[in-house]
Amino acid sequence: MFATQVYGDNGKMKEYHYTGPVEHRFSPYSFNGGTVLAVAGEDFAIVASDTRLSEGYSIHSRDSPKCYKLTDTTVIGCSGSHGDCLTLTKIIDARLKMYKHSNNKCMTSGAIAAMLSTILYGRRFFPYYVYNIIGGLDEEGKGAVYSFDPVGPYQRDTYKAGGSASAMLQPLLDNQIGFKNMEGVQHLPLSQEKAVQLVKDVFISAAERDVYTGDALRICIVTKDGIKEETVPLRKD
Amino acid sequence: MALASVLQSESVDFSNYGRQRHGFASGLYEAELGLESVGGDRLSFALSTSCSNEDGPDRKIEFLHGTTTLAFKFQHGVIVAVDSRATAGSYIASQTVKKVIEINPYLLGTMAGGAADCSFWERLLARQCRVYELRNKERISVAAASKLLANMVYQYKGMGLSMGTMVCGWDKTGPGLYYVDSEGNRVCGDLFAVGSGSMYAYGIVDSGLKQKDLTVEEACDLGRRAIYQATYRDAYSGGQVNLYHVHSEGWTRVSQSDVLMLHQQYQAEKA
């Protein structure tokens, strides 16, 4: 009736605009974009994220970083739904304080990772729409990266990319840090300077091809001397 | 919640959700901080699980899935072999997932289906087994451990858990192998393969198990071969083959082989 059905080249019908009454549903989730990346080295860990907050076709903010400092040795990067990210980081902060008061010591990176897994699974049937990556130093002072699913399972990695451009970044990291699919190449350990440069390059590439990634890059470098932050501009278009 | 009553959304019933939370005044504090246990003594979740797949116009939340795991009993115990790939939709999220969960030094659990469900419930199972050991001053049997797991997930039947696991171990009745899944199945058996690549694995193991008396070496090779063939044909399996052997002293990790290396090895053997 209202729809003008036109036959396209491949024989299938094309529908233009109004096709009849459409049911609208309230969805509690929003997708706010953003990419997060973490790399672990011998005695350092890097957590980096872009700072664009978008929704649909609009950009809400160009200065909304997705890395949050948890303790002196741990930084978490969360991307996905911004509301869930904020609530989750508040809950983690509260649990960290509770642990500190009852056990008189700070939580280690491994313990934070295990705790986050159970917090996420507690909402198995109404998940936090957040892709988390924790970067920090473990008890021995070595770099550690823990990557998570929205409902909780996690594993320890050397490097991981999460968020909207993760599928573009992960293969590049596999090749450059994991030396995958390269034959006859010497496996050199990653130095801090090389890792930071690699992270910058990788985000510049992501901003080229992913609409939800851009504006600026916030890098947090975790070493035994503390957490250092660096901001690098990216494409704003 | 006023807004929820106005928007009669069928998949997400916020009105129920709000009501249940108010009913537990002391538990409210705990629940908001994620301290609630997902055990059977707690309130049940009224939300339909289809809400987890609903999202804004473009995006779906993807959970990690897809696998091949197998276990079989033989003369000298149980062989457990798994792959190590985790997929979220069509994206390979990881090639290095540990799909065998070491419940305790003589019990193993495998992971197939939803990664979150398997790792959470098997970790809870490890805790329950330890409590049993402390209470009864003896090790838990494989039958009892698998029954505990089956009962835990049966309470969530129909709510969308996805878990197909094998509980393997050695207790005072000898080697034990049970298959437990989120539908409520719990079966004892001599051979199971679970996951998207299970059909391919069954083919290899069924033909290799014809000779009754396998040595440990031969059984390990059979398990490794079966997983390799499954990764060859199933897109959702791959990575590495992790092999465990359960015997009277407990379990030992036999090997971890990259599928690419195995491919080259088998090609060389054929030539």
TrEMBL record, chain A:
GO terms for cellular component: cytoplasm; nucleus; proteasome core complex. One of its GO terms (biological process) is proteolysis involved in protein catabolic process. SUPFAM superfamilies: N-terminal nucleophile aminohydrolases (Ntn hydrolases). Keywords: Cytoplasm, Nucleus, Proteasome. Transmembrane segments: none annotated. It comes from the Eukaryota. It holds the Pfam family Proteasome. It is found in: Cytoplasm; Nucleus. InterPro entries: Ntn_hydrolases_N, Proteasome_bsu_CS, Proteasome_sua/b, Proteasome_suB-type. Coiled coil: none annotated. Component of the proteasome complex. Belongs to the peptidase T1B family. Component of the proteasome, a multicatalytic proteinase complex which is characterized by its ability to cleave peptides with Arg, Phe, Tyr, Leu, and Glu adjacent to the leaving group at neutral or slightly basic pH. The proteasome has an ATP-dependent proteolytic activity. This is Proteasome subunit beta. It comes from Oncorhynchus mykiss. The lineage of its organism: Eukaryota, Metazoa, Chordata, Craniata, Vertebrata.
Automatic annotation (TrEMBL), chain B:
CDD domains: proteasome_beta_type_5. InterPro entries: Ntn_hydrolases_N, Pept_T1A_subB, Proteasome_bsu_CS, Proteasome_sua/b, Proteasome_suB-type. GO terms for molecular function: threonine-type endopeptidase activity. GO terms for cellular component: cytoplasm; nucleoplasm; proteasome core complex. GO terms for biological process: proteolysis involved in protein catabolic process. Its main location: cytoplasm. The keyword Transport does not apply. Keywords: Cytoplasm, Hydrolase, Nucleus, Protease, Proteasome, Threonine protease, Zymogen. It catalyses: Cleavage of peptide bonds with very broad specificity. It is found in: Cytoplasm; Nucleus. PROSITE patterns: PROTEASOME_BETA_1, PROTEASOME_BETA_2. Gene3D superfamilies: Glutamine Phosphoribosylpyrophosphate, subunit 1, domain 1 (3.60.20.10). The keyword Protease applies. The active site is at 67 (nucleophile). It holds the Pfam family Proteasome. The 26S proteasome consists of a 20S proteasome core and two 19S regulatory subunits. The 20S proteasome core is a barrel-shaped complex made of 28 subunits that are arranged in four stacked rings. The two outer rings are each formed by seven alpha subunits, and the two inner rings are formed by seven beta subunits. The proteolytic activity is exerted by three beta-subunits PSMB5, PSMB6 and PSMB7. Directly interacts with POMP. Interacts with ABCB1 and TAP1. Belongs to the peptidase T1B family. The proteasome is a multicatalytic proteinase complex which is characterized by its ability to cleave peptides with Arg, Phe, Tyr, Leu, and Glu adjacent to the leaving group at neutral or slightly basic pH. The proteasome has an ATP-dependent proteolytic activity. This subunit is involved in antigen processing to generate class I binding peptides. This is Proteasome subunit beta. It comes from Oncorhynchus mykiss (Rainbow trout).
